[in-house]
Amino acid sequence: MSNSATPKVLPRIKICCISSVDEARLAVRYGASAVGLVSHMPSGPGVISNELIAEIVATVPPPVATFLLTSLSDAESIAQQHITCKSSVIQLVDFVEPVELAKLRRLLPHVKLVQVIHVMNEESVDEARRVEGFVDALLLDSGNPTLQVKELGGTGRVHDWSLSRRIREQVDRPVFLAGGLRASNVAEAIRAVEPFGLDLCSSVRHEGKLSEHKLSEFMQAVRTAA
Prior knowledge:
This protein has helices spanning 21-29, 50-57, 75-85, 98-107, 122-131, 161-170, 186-193, 212-225, and strands at 12-15, 34-38, 65-70, 89-92, 112-118, 137-141, 175-178, 197-200, 205-206, 209-210. The chain is of the alpha/beta class. It has an eight-stranded parallel β-barrel, surrounded by four helices. Strand 2, helix 2 and strand 3 form a beta-alpha-beta unit.
C-alpha cells in the first residue's frame, strides 16, 4: 500500500514549450526526463515549426524522451506530421477517437502515444477510461476544448486534483500531471495525485525564455517533496 505523504520515487519531469536547441540542453542538464515541443495550436504558448521540432529532436540524447504536441486528431495527418518531426512520443492535446488511436498505433508502432485529458468534470474520468487501452500514458491538464477557440494546454491554471487522483487510481496507465505546477505547489500536487510524471511550461520561464534559476528552483522543490 502506497504512502501518499512520502512518495518512494521522484516523478519524471517533462519540460514543455521548448523553443530551441539551447533550451532543450538546459532542460536535460537539470534532469528533465522529457522535453515537449509544441506544433501548431489554436491557442497557447510555445508554438514552433515542424522543421525546428525536428532539429531539436535530433540533438536530444537518449533516454530523454521527445514529445511532439499535436492538435491534429486524425491518424493519417498525425503520422504525416511525425515523418517530419521524428519525436519518440506523440502527445495528443485534443481528443482523438479510439478508432483513430488504433489506426495511429498501426501506422506508428514504435512511437509512444500520450493522450491529454483536460480535467474539467466527471466526464473527464470517463474519457480517460475510454481511451486508456489505446495509448501508453495519459497527461492530465487544465485546458478547455469546448471553447470557441480551444484551450489545449499552456494555461498556467491548476485544476481539481481530486479528479486527477481518481483518474490516476482508475486507469492502468502512467499519468502525467500538468496545469499550473510551480515550486510553491509541487509538493502538494505530488501528495494529492501521486503522478508518474509532472509537466510544466510557464512556471519555469521568464520573459518567454526557459529560466535556469526557476528550473533549478522547481527541481529542488521536487527533490525536497519526494
